[in-house]
Amino acid sequence: MEPHEIGAAFEELKKEVASSRMDPEKVERLNVVLDGWETKSAEVTAANSEITKQSLELKSLTEELEKKGVENGEINKRVDELEATFARNKNAGLPPEAFSTTEEYKAMTDWCREGTEGISMEQKALLRTDSAVDGGVLTTSEMDPVITKKITEIDPFRSVARVRTISNKSMEMSIRSTIPTATYEGETGSAAESASTYENVTVTPYRQTFQTPITKDMLMDSVFNMEAEITLDSSEAFGFGEGNGFIVGNGVKQPVGIVQDATLQADALAGDTSALVSVSDMIKLTGELKTGYNPVYVLNRRVLASLRGKREDAITAGDEQGAFLWQPGMNGATPNTINGFPYIIANSMPDEAANAYAVAFGDFARGYTIIDRTGFSIIRDEFTRAGDGIVIFTMARWNTGIIVLHEAIKLLKCAA
């Protein structure tokens, strides 16, 4: 019988008791019993309602668990397989139970079965990133998108020299080798003949090559654009190579370097101080060049630093502030100067040392010519070393440099 039916029966029974002619005392006792049953009936009804609600929730939870049953079953199956594998592993020379009782094994098993919530704080501490076997192999690192590179010091000699571009294999240059003279004569005296003499100099640009091999794997798999990196490397290599050649080249299938030219060396100014460049040397050097040229100093950064530190020499020479030799530019349009003349830093120039040609001074736009041949060659060779999986990039250009007017350039030679 349903609870509501029992309640209805109690109500009917109470009505019959109230209408019957029974002893009042018995009627009262019977009403008390009936009231008790009514209270119990209400409690039963409430309990049934709660049971119905819990049954619906249990049904919903059961359906959800059934959906996850396959996944949970796969995880448990995988854990069982791992346990079996560990049990069969004899490489460590330990019995199966020796490994299965370790804290690492328990931590991993609990995590596989119950997730993060099933692992104690002590067990979590055993899964770490600073140990490869304890979870470090599961972490990844981030690649810096920028390649850190050392500075390549390129001599800016091209900025002060004369630059010519040709389209043929070579170029002939005409140079006046002697200066004509004018003489005085008397009223009937004969005039002396004088004429300029000339010579031709043939200048041939030489091939400057940059070649680098790289594996196909590097080209395909590197996180950087390696072809672009090779192009940048070639630019630096060409710039450094030609600047170095204009300073110290020997002229044999390469530019003539200003400090290697025999004529300039023979005409160099000898310094006063052994193995050093002095303030007086720098001043005397300016007097070696004819008036009319637009000269600049050429020296390396170490010699410049040495000159800037010679304050006592400057004071002895007459400047109380000790700063007259090197002067900073007043603004962006006015460059720094040495003894009133501009300078460039060319780090291929020699350091201060005995018999070193440490400083050059001259009008390089008139005394030195750089010849560039138009064109640039790039070859991507995939065949020569195809068996090794290597691609060879070969880049080439043609240029050279030559001294065309020796009197426009002077060298300072440190004393022995």
From TrEMBL:
Its main location: virion. The keyword S-adenosyl-L-methionine does not apply. It is found in: Virion. Residues 135-414 form the Phage capsid-like C-terminal domain. GO terms for cellular component: virion component. Pfam families: Phage_capsid. InterPro entries: Phage_capsid (IPR024455), Phage_capsid-like_C (IPR054612). Keywords: Virion. This is Phage capsid-like C-terminal domain-containing protein.
